[in-house]
Amino acid sequence: MRPTLVLRVLAALLAFPLLLQAAHPFLCTDSNGGKVAAVAADGTIQWEFPCNHPQDCWVLPNGNFLFCHTGGAIEADHDKKIVWEYKAGDKTEVHACQPLPDGNVMVVENGPCRIIEIDRAGKIAKEIKLTPPPATISLHDQFRGTRKTKDGHYLISRKGEHQVEELDANGKSLRRISVPGDVHEALLLPDGHLLVTCGDGHKVIELDAALKTVWELNENDVPGNPLRLMAGAQRLPNGNTILCNYLGHGHLGQQPHFFEITRDKKVVWEFTDHVHFKTINQIQLLDVPGDVTKGEILR
To answer: How many helices (H) and strands (E) does the chain have?
Structure first.
C-alpha cells in the first residue's frame, strides 16, 4: 500500500467515532438513546430494553435487570419478559430506583414528591412524603439519584435545589448539604464519606463526615475529556471511581461516555461508542462481586 494511501486510511479511522474496548462488562442506561443495555467487556451489546429516558439500573441477585424510566420501574429477565412493574401516575417522573433487602423496590417520584417502597405484588409498603421544592423548580428538576443506606436512612439528590438531603428511616429531615451543581448522585461510602456528582456543575466531590472536601474532580482535570453533566457513579473496591459523563446539552458524540479514574486523577479506561449510545447516564460494572440489595456494590 502506498504511503499516501496509508495516511488517508489512518486519517479516516481517526475521524470515525471509535469503540474503545471496555475493561469490564457493564449494565447502563442511555437516557437520550431510550434504552437500558448490558454490554460485554469487548463492547458487544448482549441485551437491551427500550424505554423512555431510563435513569437508574441494577443487576439483581437472580440475574434479572431492574431499572426505572420516566413512567415507572421495570424488572425484566434475559428474555426481555417483564416480571415486575410499577407504573407511575400522571404528572409524575421517576428518576431513581433501588432494590431493597426485603425484596421491595424503592422508587422516587417527581411531582407527588415522595419515596415509595413497593412490594412484589405491586402494593406500596411504605411511603415517605418529601418536602416539595420551591415552585420555581420544574417537575423534571425536582429529584435525581436517591439511595437507602444500610442504616435505613435516605440520601436524596435535590437536583434543582443543589442540595443533598438526608432523612431518617421515618422521613425526618436530618440535614441538607449544599453542593456546587444540580446534584445527580450521592453515595455513602464505607468510611462515612459522601461521593457527590454535581450535574451541570461539571464537578465531582467527596466530603468527609465534617463535610470537608477531601477529593474532587474539576471540569478540566481530565485532559481532552472535560466534565459535562456528571451523572451516575460507582466506587470500586480498588478505590477507583467510575463516572458517567452525560453528553446531552450540546455534546453528543464528542467524547467518552464514562471513565474509570484513580485517586490521583489518572484515567484507567474509558468507553466510547457513539454508534449505539447517545448519553450513558448510569452504570453498574458486572464483574464487581456483591449483592446490590445489601449495598455491597457502591453505587
So the answer is: 1, 24
